[in-house]
Amino acid sequence: MDAEQFIVITLIGIAAAVFSYFNLLSSSGAVAASLTGILVWAGFGINGVIVMGTFFVTSSLLSKYKHKRKEYLGELHEKGSARDWAQVAANGGTAALAGLANLLSPDPVWLLVFSISLASANADTWASELGVLSKKWPVSVKNMKRVPRGTSGAVSGFGTAASAAGSLLIALSAYFLFGLEQRWAVAIFIFGFVGTMLDTLLGAYLQAGYKCVKCGLFTEKTLHCSMPTIQVSGYKKLNNDAVNFISCFTAAFLGMVLYIVF
Questions:
Q1: Where are the beta strands (DSSP E) in 44-158?
Q2: H/E element, 87
Q3: In whole angstroms, what is the distance from residue 177 CA to residue 1 CA?
Q4: What's this model's pTM, rounded to 2 decimal places?
Q5: How would you class 207 by CB atoms within 10 Å of its CB: exposed for 0-12, middle for 13-18, buried for 19 or more?
Q6: What is the predicted pLDDT for the residue at 1?
Q7: How high is the pLDDT of residue 72?
């Protein structure tokens, strides 16, 4: 390992530790984020780390934005704002795999896969963190009825706009840092947005949903009011992390197909 490699790996580790210190990552999340960062750097260099960092930093800060108004989400969501290893893998796993693939077999298609996966993850996170601040309750895509803020499988105008902005930020970051053609920057933006729409559909129809047997709250938690909840919808193994990974991976795969065809 030369001096440059040592410095980069050390900085990635320090960044993960800082995120953990400020409760943005759990201990397992810090380790997973470090490994993800190393694979991304190995495949795409420092510019790849910057794009990934753009996602991690903005999404983590947004999770803390107006956190008092979001406290009720702790009753609905399975996990808190400090990301564990599964959440890191769900949002950054495809990007890490793209970095490894580009290291082993360099090809421009892996940069597209990498960028789209992060655009999708960023779009979904921005939609979740900002959409819950909308003045109006979102609409469930399953029955077109108003549902409480934070409900999986629901959309709002404000959340949709935030989603588009999140995808656009990653597309622009990749465009300027890697000197991409405009058409591929547009593809990253579109497929990133498509990824979060897919996430919404999966959240509405396939993600596991539970109901508290004591207070009757619909939640993602398997334990509520100190009692096991009962599953009322979706598939047990498809929690929010699984849905996020599938959405990012699928959006990136569709972008790869487009690249190969054209």
A1: 139-140, 154-155
A2: helix 85-104
A3: 25
A4: 0.92
A5: buried
A6: 57
A7: 61
- pLDDT score at 42: 94
In angstroms, rounded to a whole number, what is the distance separating the alpha carbons of residues 221 and 239? Answer: 10
> Does residue 89 register a pLDDT over 80?
yes
**Structure-token pair, residue 53:** 């960092």
DSSP code of 137? P
Q: What are the pLDDT digits (tens) for 117-141? A: 999 999 999 998 888 888 888 998 9
- Provide the 8-state DSSP code for 152: T
Task: Say how far residue 19 (Cα) sits from the centre of its chain.
Answer: 16
The amino acid at 57: V
CB 189 within 8 Å of CB 167: yes
CB 98 within 8 A of CB 230: no
CB of 204 closer than 8 Å to CB of 141: yes
